[in-house]
Amino acid sequence: MKKLLLFMAHPTNDMDEDLTVLGQLGLMHISPFQPAKDESIERILKRIEELEKGISILEEYEGIESSVALEVTNYSTEKRGEIALLEDVLNTHNANVELNKQISELSKAQQWYNSWGSISLNDIKSITDKGVYLKLYEVPAKDVKSIAEQHTVKVVGQSAGAVQVVLISEDKEVSLNYHQIELPVISQQEVEEALSDKNAALAKGKQRLCQLSEQKALLVEALDERNRRLEIRTVQYGGIAFHDKVRCWEGYVPEDKVSNITEAADENAWGYVVREPRPDEYDLVPTLLKNPGWTHKIKPVMGFMGLVPGYDEIDVSKIFLIFFTFFTGILVGDAGYGLIFLVLTLLAHWKTGFVKKIEFGLFYTLSVSVMIWGVLTGTYFGAETIANIPFLKQLQVQQLASFGGDNLRIQQFMFIIGAVHLTIGHLQKGLKYINTVIPIAQLGWVSIVWGLYFLVNDMVLGIDGPSYMQWLFIGGAVLVTFFSSPGQPLFKGMLSSLGNLPLNVINGFSDVISYIRLYAVGLSTVLMASSFNDMAIGEGITTVASGVGAVLVLVLGHALNMTLAAMAVLVHGVRLNMLEYAGHASVEFSGSDYNPFKLKNK
């Protein structure tokens, strides 16, 4: 990456043309000097919000045939037609919302009349004017008799388990100790007429939106244009203006693309300064990874975890993908599960029309890895009976077999994987500094890692280490002590390396041991599958009920086991790459993605 300072004239004027050229180049990762603030940005944001709402409204009516042909303007032929269309959509929608509220209130009044009958509000008012007051209540049936003994009441019906009564009194203050039912404010005839009118208006509004939905593309195009303007304004006001004559931006450009920027700058009379980022600026430099296509499959995992190597760190994508795929196979380790994952991925891919997406490539790869490890270990839904089928048994590696294998050798194999994984990390770090003495120190660490491997075998598995094991530690320690700090005076560097060595060796020991989790989790997956099989069919299936129960146990049990295995992949498969391996490769994932200012061509 090269650091770029870019200058453009007339910062107070509309910079759309110049910034559009820059955005269409799509090469400059801009680091804003300040938050972008301006009234124009607020206006654009408000318009974007309105356009998104208008599009969302039309999408609800898209594809619905209009039963009535209304006179609707063709807004694509009008000046600022997208704004007129948007206003029409929003006004019609708001009117429909208000009509729905009114219909809801009228429906409540209609339900009241359906419950209490065709009561004339004029008659009730006439009675009230003569000094007789009528009040409506709903009371429990058991209380009606006692109320009738104290007041003049008349039962007029029943509703929802309660008795409808009318209290008749010449005293306006008299009431019952129950919830009083209020009278509607309009008559039944007015309710029916209003409902008819409102429903007709609502239907017309919906028909209008159905026809307007045919012009949705106009709003989509307008939204794209407003988003483009927003990006331009955000970049414009994120830069610094000098004396209202020049505006400046700071950013980064890939080294092999600098000429594209400078040529455009010369053509458009922009000023620029290009230089190498200083070491103290490395934390700000975005990371642009250039890898073979096959490594892109790991991007969804690294993106999900937010893992981006720093600008000055090693690109671990290739090793991450290879070992993550391998770890997934071991952690799940069941060929039957792998086949199910493969079929589910294929179905999901088929539903999308086999669209080319990195995620599907990743899931296909992981599913095949699980199937291969399951075949090598003879694991098929945790069933030993299937594993013993002659054809399948010939495909097993007997020492790794889940049933009848050598558990000691399997654990040792996991430690070998760990030692190899960590060794690769140190070798990558050494290659990064190939023109210094640091690669010699990394060879020392490789020696220590393999010494730790033999030590772990001895302490955990009881396998005696070779006679030269101690020399791996001694030789490694000497190399690390002398060559780990090339930038410091010899004696000071040696003291620093020696001071850190014991703790680093202890951490390395725990890192090698950490790979036993592959064996433990893989074994637990097999044992759980086998347990569910025993629960379902261990004593045989003798009745229909036991058959149904067995199917439920098998389906639910294995579904749960597959879910837990998938979670284990995210926890353990990622962890061994992100912590153990990355730690030995000195990768802290402190970087940020290269995200250039990029606009589509108009």
Automatic annotation (TrEMBL):
Query: Where is this protein found?
Result: Membrane
Which keywords does this Swiss-Prot/TrEMBL entry list? Ion transport, Membrane, Transmembrane, Transmembrane helix, Transport
Q: Which coarse location class applies to the principal site listed for this UniProt protein?
A: membrane
What is its membrane topology? Multi-pass membrane protein
Transmembrane helix keyword on record = yes
Which residue ranges run through the membrane? 319-348, 360-383, 410-427, 434-456, 468-491, 544-571
Q: Could you say which protein family the record assigns here?
A: Belongs to the V-ATPase 116 kDa subunit family.
User: By what name is this protein known?
Assistant: V-type ATP synthase subunit I
Q: Which organism is it from?
A: Carboxylicivirga marina
